[in-house]
Amino acid sequence: MNLSIVIPLLNEQESLPELHQWIVRIMTANNYSYEVIFIDDGSTDGSWKIIEQLSNENPNVKGIRFLRNFGKSQALHAGFAKANGDVIITMDADLQDSPEEIPGLYNMILNQDYDLVSGWKKKRYDSVVGKNLPSKLFNWAARKTSGVQLNDFNCGLKAYKNIVIKNIEVSGEMHRYIPVLAKNAGFFNIGEKVVIHQARKYGESKFGMNRFINGFLDLITIWFLSKYGKRPMHLFGALGVVMFIIGFLSTFLIIGIKLLKLFVFDEPTILVTSNPLFYIALTAMVIGSQLFLAGFLGEIILRTKNNEERYKIAKEVNL
After folding, report:
1. Which residues face 38 on adjacent strands?
2. Which positions of the chain have pLDDT values less than 50?
3. What is the C-alpha to C-alpha distance for residues 185 and 288, in angstroms, rounded to an integer?
4. Kindly report the CA angle at 262 between 258 and 263, in degrees rounded to 5?
5. What does the DSSP 8-state code read for residue 263?
6. What residues have CB less than 8 Å from 244, skipping those under 6 apart?
């Protein structure tokens, strides 16, 4: 099979028939063998009924329905698990991602041997203050932190080799950082393609300003996981050692000053507990102990964790 098109969605009943027709037209024109996997992430409108209708009309349309809204990352994870195509395309269901871009993305994977190609919505039709400027800041921070030189990490239109999506773990809200996850997994040939961004035709955006705050927090998480995810003791242990050194040096300094004043200079001295350095030493040792404990707990969790089911599937069609 040439292509698997994975489409997570939430309350997009108006756009689904038009999106399906558009995709089929592109697939037919290019003579691709394909499957379209819709993942209904807990829609409360008629999205699932539309998916069932489309799957009855077209056996290449497949559907997964979650019991409730679990998030885009979980939807992509479920779609990736079912995808069988040599190349996997992800796109949003709101018609802002154009299926006309699929052949170009497919050819970049197939002919230029990219592991992953990310879309770049260079010209956007979103609010400048509400989305464009925060997005630029977010993408700049992501480039600096991850080392992956992409202009638009959050673009839903991406193409992957099958081997890539089968070897990355998309969890939490990490769908923004799939290129970083791919790089961490050993897939370094990552490209970018300028794609058309269309104005929203139906409904309203499901994302608010809070996604950028969450995005920056996730960026910190993925930076930590990429560097210390398999060895948390290396970070927490090192910080613990630094705090212990500060604590011991402060303790020796307190003792040294007291002994010098008592036996060398024959001067009266204050109580150890009245010396500000005493509290610095005490605090440093307590923090050092906590950091060591955090490192040990992290190592234990890594060695005993079980892979928990992160979402519940209510129904499937054509799968």
Report:
1. 7, 63
2. none
3. 32
4. 120
5. I
6. 284, 285, 288
Give the Cα separation of 17 and 25 in Å (integer). 12
**In angstroms, rounded to a whole number, what is the distance separating the alpha carbons of residues 10 and 42?**
7
C-beta separation of 195 from 153 below 8 A: no
The 10s digit of each residue's pLDDT in 174-233 is 788 889 889 888 899 999 999 987 766 666 665 555 666 666 666 677 677 667 766 778
Q: What is the pLDDT of residue 171?
A: 76
Euclidean distance between CA atoms 62 and 213, whole angstroms: 34
**Contact (Cβ atoms closer than 8 angstroms) between residue 47 and residue 16:** yes
Q: What is this structure's pTM?
A: 0.73
Integer angstrom CA distances of residue 300 from 126, 232, 292, 297, 304: 45, 10, 12, 5, 6
Spatial separation of the C-alpha atoms in residues 122 and 115, rounded to whole Å: 22
Per-residue confidence (pLDDT) for residue 205, from 0 to 100: 60
Yes or no: say if 129 and 116 are a contact pair by the CB < 8 Å rule. no
pLDDT at 57: 94
The DSSP code for 175 is G
Cα–Cα distances (Å) from 81 to 108, 117, 162, 165, 284, in that order, read 23, 19, 10, 8, 47
Query: Which residue, among 92, 112, 100, has the nearest Cα to 154 in the 3D structure?
Result: 92
Tokens for 254, please give them.
């307190």
